[in-house]
Amino acid sequence: MAKMGILIDITKCIGCKACEKACKMRNDQPLTLDEHLSANAYTVVQERLPNTYVRRMCMHCENPTCVSVCPVGAFTKTAAGPVVYDKYKCIGCRYCMYSCPFSVPKYQWNKVVPYVQKCYMCADRIEEGSEPACTAACPTGASIFGERDKLIEEAQKRIKDNPDRYVDHIYGLHEVGGTSILYISNVEFEQFKAPFNIALPDKPLPMYTWAALEKVPTIVVVGGVVLTGIWWITSRRGEVEKFEAGSKQEHWWRFGKKQEGVKEKKEDKQ
Ligand code: SF4
Ligand code: SF4
Ligand code: SF4
């Protein structure tokens, strides 16, 4: 399957928040107006300059640090582009939250059994040949979905055809090795600050993670992860099972597939 992505054209965004609402409805989240990303807001539209709106969401990095730092492989970069999360593997260490260069993953601090939460690019809809709920809802074409290569061509064309309208920069084309979410703008990206961290290198951040780990004795890393992991997995599996006995099943793209050995419940087939 071709690698998909989303192109966000800041010049076309009117701040209507239809994308936010569509995402919340898709994910059964409270229909509140949110300023910041949270466990109940996978995307937010922020007015960063007068009448200039920046939509934030997971960047679905080509080489994600959340994937590289997770000791149990709870995050996966899929072939189609989305970076998805598997709650059945997650041990709650939250390394993904600390390592994300765009501060995207959030934690359900107020839940008895908390999970990490973030946009999953509506991976199930993409697999079915559809598009994410947010891009389908955007009335102006400020957020469009398509093959990443074609979106890059479209972004380049808009910039070339309208040099007075756009700055000559596609954010996400090279940053941290490239991202599936791409932005074009009429304002230099550094003026917006987050999520456009201009100081980020073009080299994928996992390369730095591995470079750093190479200098740490293996026994320290492996020993620490194993001991922490055993404790977390043991206690967390019990919590998850107890919690799920009384809760409805969420979609697996958000929360993961059941692992071998974990008893399947009736709700999982719905
Ligand atoms: S933006 Fe953060 S959470 Fe999203 S894929 Fe990149 S590293 Fe992972
Ligand atoms: S891709 Fe899906 S989960 Fe992500 S912001 Fe859009 S609607 Fe929400
Ligand atoms: S739906 Fe489109 S125009 Fe409206 S806030 Fe979202 S990206 Fe902007």
Q: How are the strands of the biggest sheet laid out side by side?
A: 8-1-9
CATH class: Alpha Beta
User: What share of the residues lie within helices?
Assistant: 25-40%
How many H/I helices? 9
Task: Give a written overview of the molecule.
The protein is α+β, with helices and mostly antiparallel strands and 270 residues long. The chain has a single domain (4-210), classed as Alpha-Beta Plaits (2-Layer Sandwich). 31% of the residues lie in helices and 13% in strands. It is built from nine helices and nine strands. The chain has helices spanning 18-26, 65-69, 95-99, 123-127, 133-137, 148-161, 205-214, 218-245, 252-255; strands at 4-9, 44-49, 52-56, 75-77, 83-85, 106-107, 116-117, 143-147, 181-184. The strands form four sheets. Strands 8-1-9 form a three-stranded mixed beta sheet. A two-stranded antiparallel ribbon has the order 2-3. Strands 4-5 form a two-stranded antiparallel sheet. The radius of gyration is 19 Å and the shape is globular. The two termini are 26 Å apart. Mean pLDDT is 83; it is low at 214-224, 246-252 and 261-270. Residues 22-23, 26, 42-43, 57, 119-122, 132-134 line the site of one iron/sulfur cluster.
